[in-house]
Design goal:
By secondary structure, this protein is mostly helical. The chain has 18 helices and 4 strands.
Length: 456
């Protein structure tokens, strides 16, 4: 009973199982250093504002530093009876420096304290994730640079559509990752404001200096409404939303890598370090890493829905429900970091089977559109040109021929506009290199794009 920091109002001890059921210390330990960082800034402000004496503030800060060292050494025993990280640290402080430790909580509440801790934690994790995103972009760009000669089939409906540069395909994923990075920066900017000072919900009667604390802790300012400050979890939801979109992108790339490393495609070879064997089929080399990233996308989507559902219909301001925000958030942070880290190296180390890609790019009449475009340049309306080429392709199918193998006479059955120079237009290179406008797959367009990315 005596251990509880809020025990004054109570005459009976908490039920043991209720204690375990309501405690969050089990998963909150990762907030410890942020909790202490916030408390130190708060204590120093209390001293500066003469809410407590400077000597008391100094004593509190020294005590907090000791506790941080103990935690970092893995030597602090967290107690379930003390519920959460805030009370574990505060109880330890009082135990260490005596009653003066009890002055730390002046002008604040666990409600604004936890809102601060999650923000500090998430800000750090975001900065780490921004570096991973940068590294993945670099891996993708390097793949593109190293394989500029490789032509692969481009697909729609997973049917061969038109030939594209493999580099162009890799840079498509770079675009997705660049948008993810911009979303992450955006959301970081939106929540980088200090919630401390909101108190339990209504603010605090003490003459605190929120702006000073905000500056000490690297915030861009302070939050503007105490009720919102303690009940807002938009930032966690936005992060989980960013994470869901990022994982959707990674799972698309994962899916392609899985397909491409199958014997049927055989477009790439993943490094052995990212695959495993089968316990029964000796020939197998399974792409476990991309499969697992594809699979983990599910839990990251789930975390977003958990948080949205958690916050739905909650009345203002703080509700204990909100303690459930942490595990989904932490899980999304860990999953995203792990998935990015492993993708960076896997992409850097995969090898491309250029010959197979090229052969596949030739299947499926991938240059048919180029004949239509050829006819259009000779004055035929596109719709009619489409018809001409449709018939050409049907002829090829029926006679088991490929477009570049057709004789001049065969071509001319379909349109007299087709002349000998058609052969210059139906090669894979010609098809690819015809698409030079910005965003196209022509080698020159891709090289321009790579140069632009390098200089950016
Ligand atoms: N562990 C709590 C949470 O994560 C901290 C805030 C508790 N506040 C309260 N009034 N019980 O939400």
């Amino acid at each position: 009973m005596s251990q509880k920091l809020w025990g004054g109002r109570f005459t009976q001890p908490t039920d043991k199982f209720v204690e375990e059921f309501t405690a969050s210390i089990g998963f909150e330990q990762r907030l410890a250093s942020y909790d202490i960082q916030g408390s130190k800034a708060h204590a120093e402000m209390l001293g500066r504002q003469e809410i407590i004496s400077v000597a008391e503030a100094t004593q509190i800060i020294a005590g907090l530093n000791d506790i941080l060292a103990t935690i970092e050494a893995g030597e602090l025993e967290f107690s379930v009876a003390l519920e959460d990280i805030h009370m574990n640290v505060e109880a330890r402080l009082i135990e260490k420096i005596g009653a003066v430790g009890g002055k730390l909580h002046t002008g604040r509440s666990r409600n604004d304290q936890v809102a601060l801790d999650i923000r500090l934690y998430l800000r750090d994790e975001i900065d780490a994730i921004l570096v991973y995103l940068d590294n993945l972009e670099t891996s993708l760009i390097e793949q593109a640079e190293q394989n500029l000669d490789v032509i692969m089939p481009g697909f729609t409906h997973l049917q061969t559509a038109q030939p594209v540069l493999y580099s162009h395909h890799m840079l498509a994923y770079r675009e997705m990752i660049a948008r993810d990075r911009s979303r992450l920066r955006d959301l970081r900017n939106r929540f980088n404001f200090l919630p401390l000072g909101a108190g339990a919900l209504a603010g605090t009667p003490f003459p605190i200096d929120r702006e000073w604390v905000a500056e000490q802790l690297g915030f861009d300012g302070v939050t503007r409404n105490s009720l919102d400050s303690v009940s807002d979890r938009d930032f966690a939801i936005e992060f989980c939303s960013f994470a869901a979109i990022l994982m959707m992108h990674l799972s698309r790339l994962a899916e392609e890598l899985i397909l491409w490393s199958s014997a049927n495609f055989s477009f790439i070879e993943l490094s052995d370090a990212f695959c495993t064997g089968s316990s029964i089929m000796p020939q197998k080399k399974n792409p476990d890493v991309p499969e697992l990233v594809r699979g983990k996308t599910g839990r990251v989507y789930g975390n977003l829905i958990s948080l949205l559902t958690l916050m739905k219909s909650l009345p203002l301001a703080y509700n204990k429900d909100m303690q459930e925000d942490k595990e989904p958030l932490f899980d999304s942070v860990d999953t995203v970091k792990g998935s990015l880290k492993i993708f960076v190296d896997m992409i850097a180390e995969m090898s491309v089977k250029a010959d197979n890609m090229r052969i596949a790019a030739g299947y499926g009449y991938s240059t048919a559109t180029d004949i239509a475009d050829y006819c259009v340049r000779k004055g035929l309306p596109f719709r009619q040109a489409h018809e001409v080429v449709g018939k050409t392709v049907r002829y090829c199918v029926e006679n088991n021929k490929d477009i570049p193998d057709l004789t001049m006479a065969e071509f001319q059955q379909f349109s007299e506009l087709i002349e000998a120079d058609i052969y210059d237009f139906v090669t894979l290179e010609a098809s690819v290199n015809a698409r030079q406008a910005t965003g196209g797959t022509a080698r020159i367009a891709v090289e321009r794009e790579l140069a632009r990315l390098k200089s950016a």
